Amino acid sequence: MKKLRCFMIISVLIFCAAVLFAQNQKVVLAFFEDASGDFRIVSADGADERYGDQLEFGSEIPVGWTVVTGNGDSAELQLEPTKTIIRVAENTNFHIDGLQGLAGAEESRFSLGFGKIRCVAGKIVGDEKYVFNGQAAACGVRGTDWQQWIGQAIDGTAFEEVLVFAGQIEYSLLADPLKKILVKAGEFANALADSFESLIASAQKIADAKKEMLFQELDPEKVPKLETGVEPKTPAPEEVTELEKQPPEEGIKEPGQEPKGYLTQMLQDIIGFEIGSITIGNETYAKAVATPTFSVGKLAMSLYLPIIYSQNLLDPDDWYKPNGNSEWSFGFDQGGDWWAFTKDFAYDLFLKIKYVQWGDIRDPFFFKVGNLNSFTVGHGLIMRNYANDDEFPAIRRIGVNFGLDLGGFGFETVVNDLADPLVFGGRVYVRPFAGSFPLALGLSSVVDIGPAVLQNPDIAFSDFGSPVIISAGLDLDFPIVERDLLSIILFGDVAGMIPYFTTDGLDPAITRGLAWQTLFDTSDGFKIRNIGAVAGLFGNMGPVDWRLEFRWYNGAFEPAMFDSQYERHRVTMTQETAAYAADPGAVTTTNMGIHGRAGWGIPDIFTLKAGYTWPWIYEGGKLSTAEEDEVFLSAVLERGVIPAVDIGAEVSYERSYFIPWLFEGATASGYDLKFFDAYTGLKTKVTYGVSENIDLLLFITTTLQRNPDGTVYFDPATYLPKLVNSFSFETQVHF
Predict the structure, then answer these.
(1) Whether residue 658 sits in one domain with residue 612
(2) Confidence (pTM)
(3) Which of 388, 396, 390, 385 is nearest to 361 (CA)?
(4) What percent of the chain has pLDDT over 70?
(5) Do 525 and 376 belong to one domain?
(6) Domain membership of residue 711 as a residue range
(7) What is the total count of domains within the chain?
């Protein structure tokens, strides 16, 4: 009952979090002046207009509406919950196109038809995105303070100008989106000028612009975590020299003219630093880690430069060696062996990459490199959500997942670790009727050439024939509809598994070579066995991602056998595969089940995911429930959501034998089930922001117990690993 209560409490907390933080994005009319008597907001189709006498401070402006100001008018808008503020000047037409997180929008979008606005963009969790379109150019904005102005000069020349007071924006031409520039603090740019470039603004220009666009009701200082950098000094008007009053010659920037906040801003965006402690197994280490992180468009990259030590930070012999490797030696501990030097140099260099990523699965092009928690091939019948970061940072691997979709043809590949590739595979697919009928046919395969490598030396894997696990399958994919707001994809897969024994096993039936008897049954006619099939649907409805499928399999084959917990069960698979190969006819059961998974969230607020697999066994003409069910729960609470407390949390929990653990405490074979056991995966991260530049982080994970030589300990009696808890408490500094 204690376990049941524990599970119910976790479920209620997750549900309450989802309800509590399901806040709507909105735009509020915080203040306005109606000097002209013509101030109004207008609906998208123009059929509905609300004038000043119909509005009040605090009124919500719906998405799709336009704010229109006349002579002497002004308005101040505030976005919730980011607290971004916008001042709309007189004679301006300002349109609200969409808000990030609503209707699947990836950013908040606005349009300036003509006139002038000033925006101070809020930055709560770091993922806020804003796009302001003009007539000729678009501004990509995160946390910054700037103004946009579309008008005419005294001589009648049209201009479309941005001026940045703090931070920086990405300014791109609408007619040629690839032509873009960065406009940083103290700079301005004119999209209609002969030369599209950023120029240094004079101190007088900055002072005049700020004075004209001062907020009357809203306070820019209260916008959360504004990335101001170091703002250029604005001298009093009488201090401005004649030279400063002259605009700089077009295209020329003298040395030293860069705004003082530029370097600070660049460092703030890139550099991160962590200090703290980490418990690996029964040992506690101190750590100091630099984590430079870069992000440009779809490209994201993070490095991991650690020093993890027991007693002495300055003694390399005292530093932690992941998997027995001295990662800062770069080959110089390999003696005179140049080949060993080269391999160790490359391995140590690769270890410094935490991840590099571009795009995602089903994008025309994607790749992922590093310590990653989600490798999937095709629809996942063979490999789904395989993770090579299960023991990060104790054990670090450089995995690769790469895919290219050329329309009528495509492929994807996966490797678990470039330094020591043991699990690898991929998928190729064609669309024979591309352009008229979106059906795709695919062929996939995943191989584990060393399921018993680096495992407990007390287990004689040669007794099992030291098998190589080979899986291959066919699949079809038919998108019924595939859009950002709604997608429904029909799929069906079939796959089989066959081992290749590298040695003769202890059982005479296990001989070196491909074990064809595991795949083909010729005892009574001809039958194919040790296979699996799955059919179902997946997709999304707005912010909700979902998947529902029916599974059928027999023999030693298991759907998604390469999953997030595969590294823990490689030895078990070795033993079970050998036992099945020795006597395939002894397994007479057929397994079935229904698997469902769904995820829902509001950007910058929370994410909630859950999944469950309900398994059955068909044997002797009877259908009964199997005990190897699986459950998955994940919840993420973004920072800044709870008022006045800068705290965020991420928790994921998954396990098999869930119902037996909850009610029985043991499997039918007698294995004692615990909250943390070989069938469990737990990852917890709690972040607390002490200040704008310092965060405290707590990590709690389960990891595998290892022998002194770095090999994984597996119980010789059960062939299951022993888990230990890993606790890490650190201080993270970002500039």
Answers:
(1) yes
(2) 0.57
(3) 385
(4) 81
(5) yes
(6) 271-304+352-734
(7) 2
